[in-house]
Write a structure and sequence with these properties.
By secondary structure, this protein is mainly α. The chain has helices at residues 2-27, 33-42, 44-72, 77-109, 119-157, 163-185, 187-193, 199-214, and strands at residues 218-222, 229-233. The protein has one domain (2-233). Helices cover 78% and strands 4% of the residues. It has a two-stranded antiparallel ribbon with strand order 1-2. Strand 1 (218-222) and strand 2 form a beta hairpin. The radius of gyration is 21 Å and the shape is elongated.
């Protein structure tokens, strides 16, 4: 189960990184609706792959959250459940928010909209929906920011994962929190902080993924005969 979680986590990191860094950031030109629309239409297949990559991230994330709940429930059931709730809320926001990412394709491809809007207006609306998608994405990351310290604390309290991994994972949540609050409160400052403020998140999530995938978790059990102590890797 732990190795499956690590594998799913690695898929999430790769798919989410592709969708955000290579698709949305790569095709969106800040403040230039015409150039953004041109980029989307010129690289439409990549844009669609980015959308599917986000869907893959959501599906893997849902399964991963359930596995984490099962793994950490013996440590603290209530905290494990709270982390699962935050994950579900963040994933729900991200899922609904993906509609904004589909909006540019609908606006730029349907000729029926030209009866009410000019091409320039449709291009401007497309950029608006992409900007709205970015805000929704930051809202989902803000919710995820509370998920990470809870899991980090559970890792720290557990006896089957290294404590330093819990500390690093908590720092990942702090990175997401600072990033989202900066975009909401000080957008000009956030533009300079991004993507450096998300570096702790990348380190924390990658570390968790690789550790689970390669090492797994240590299962400790006492045998009935002679109370011999045994530890294995799951």
């Amino acid at each position: 189960m732990a190795k499956a979680a690590g594998f799913l986590y690695l898929i999430m990191i790769l798919a989410g990184g592709f969708a955000e860094a290579f698709v949305r950031e790569g095709l969106t030109v800040s403040g230039n609706a015409i150039a953004t629309a041109h980029n989307i239409l010129a690289s439409e297949q990549m844009y669609r792959f980015g959308f599917v990559a986000d869907l893959v991230t959501l599906i893997c994330g849902t399964i991963l959250s359930l596995i984490f709940y099962i793994l950490f429930k013996p440590v603290n059931r209530n905290l494990s459940l709270l982390a699962l709730i935050f994950s579900i809320l963040a994933s729900a926001v991200m899922a609904v928010n993906l509609l904004n990412q589909q909006a540019p394709l609908l606006l730029l491809h349907s000729s029926s909209y030209l009866k009410a809007f000019t091409i320039e207006q449709l291009q401007t609306l497309s950029l608006f929906f992409l900007n709205l998608q970015s805000q929704g994405y930051n809202i989902s990351l803000l919710l995820f920011a509370f998920y990470f310290p809870i899991i980090g604390w559970l890792v720290y309290q557990s006896n089957f994962l290294p404590r330093i991994l819990g500390v690093i994972y908590t720092m990942a949540g702090l990175g997401y929190l600072i990033n989202s609050l900066a975009w909401f409160l000080f957008p000009h400052l956030a533009a300079h902080l991004f993507p450096y403020v998300l570096l702790p998140a990348f380190i924390g999530e990658t570390s968790m993924s690789l550790w689970l995938l390669i090492k797994g978790v240590k299962i400790q059990k006492n045998t009935i005969a002679g109370d011999n102590f045994d530890s294995t890797l799951l």
